[in-house]
C-alpha cells in the first residue's frame, strides 16, 4: 500500500483482467460509477418468483420502466429473465420496443407497455413486435383498433381499470361504453382481450388500518370489474394488481401475474416496512465516486453557495465530483452548521475509508451542479484521505461495521423515496455490471456493451 491510501484500491471482484481494464477505463472517463450486481438482481427476482409461485402459482412481470429504475434496461431485463420472470413491463412504449429490438423476443417473454399518447402512439410497431398494450380510454381503444385493422393482426390488450388509484384506467361509471366497444372489437378479431389490471395506492402501508381498508376497497372494485367483463363475455385470462408490496404481503391478490418493481432492485417499497434483508432482498446498485480536491480549511469557513454550512473547527474538506446534473438531489444538501442559521439538517451520507476505518461523512453545504463538498471533520492527512480516493454514496448496506449507506438513507436526506434516488441518476454516470458471466449465457451477454462488464 506504499504511497496509496486506504480507498485507492477497488473492492470489486473482477471476472477477468478485461473486467479490471473496463473498470479502470470507466474511472478515467468519469469520476463516478454506478455498479450494478446482476447476481443480486437475479436473486431478488428468483425470490419474488418463489414467493409468487408458492402462494398462488402466479407468473411474474419484472417491472423495468424508467431505464430499469436507473439500473440499465437491457442488463436488468436479462437478469430478471434469468431469475425466472416470464413477463417484462415498461411504462413508456419506447422502452418496450427497445427490449424487443435488443433481441428479447416473444418466445422468451411477454412485454406489456402502458404509457403512450393514445392518438399518436406507434401502435403498429408495438403489435408487430408482439408487445401487449394497456388500454384505459375509448380514444386509445379506437386508435389501437385502427392500427390492428391496418396490419390485419389482432392487438393483445390489457384493460386498465381505476379501482381507486385515481390515475389511469376506466372508472366504474365510464366502463359500460368501453366494455361495449371491447366486446365488438374482440368478436371481430381486432382486439384480443388478454388481461385486466389495476394499480394499488397504499399497499406499502400494511400496518396502517385506514390504508388497509383502502386496499380492501380497491380489491373489491377490481373484482367487480372482472365480473362485468365475464358477464359481457370477455373474461380476462390474466389479471394483475400486485406491486412489490402486495407481492410480498398479500398473496391473495397475486391473481395470475404479479408486477414487482422495487423488489427486483433490492429495496422494500417503504422503509416503514423494515429493511430489505427482512424480505430477503439485496440492493443491486452501488454508487461510488473518486474524490477531487482535498484540502485544509480554517474554522468559520463558509462552504458552497449561500454559506449554509460554516466549518465549526479547523478541518479538511473533500470534493465529491458529482452534483445535481448527475441526479444527486439538491434537497440532500447539508446545513449542519453550528452557526446562527443552524437548521440541523444532515446532508446525504457518504462512506469514506480512513486510516482509522470507514467513516460516514455528510454533504456539507449545498449540492452544486457538478459537485458537492464533504467536511471530513478532521485532518485529511492524518485520516489518510486523499484526492482520487473512492468513496461510496450508497450500496447494499452490508452490516453494521461496514457502515454503508443505502438509497433509503439518501431518500431520507433528500425527503424522497429510494425509487427517485436511483431513477434520477443520469446516464452520464457509467453503469458497470458485475456477475454477467455468472448470470447470463453467451447469447445474452452479446446483447450488452462489453465495455460495461466487470
Ligand atoms: C411501477 C409500477 C409497478 C411496480 O411497483 P413497485 O412498487 O416498484 O413494485 C407495478 N405496476 C405499475 C403499473 C407500475 O407503474
TrEMBL record:
GO-annotated cellular components: cytosol
EC numbers on record: 5.1.1.1
Transmembrane helix recorded as keyword: no
Cofactor: pyridoxal 5'-phosphate
UniProt-listed CDD domains: PLPDE_III_AR
GO biological process, one term: D-alanine biosynthetic process
Sequence positions that bind substrate: 167, 369
Keywords associated with the record: Isomerase, Pyridoxal phosphate
Sequence positions bearing N6-(pyridoxal phosphate)lysine: 65
Alanine racemase C-terminal domain ranges (all copies): 284-434
Domain of life assignment: Bacteria
Coiled-coil segments on the chain, per record: none
GO molecular function: alanine racemase activity; pyridoxal phosphate binding
Pathway listed: Amino-acid biosynthesis; D-alanine biosynthesis; D-alanine from L-alanine: step 1/1
Catalytic activity field: L-alanine = D-alanine
Active site feature: 65 (proton acceptor), 305 (proton acceptor)
Pfam families: Ala_racemase_C, Ala_racemase_N
Function: Catalyzes the interconversion of L-alanine and D-alanine. May also act on other amino acids.
Family designation: Belongs to the alanine racemase family.
Protein name: Alanine racemase
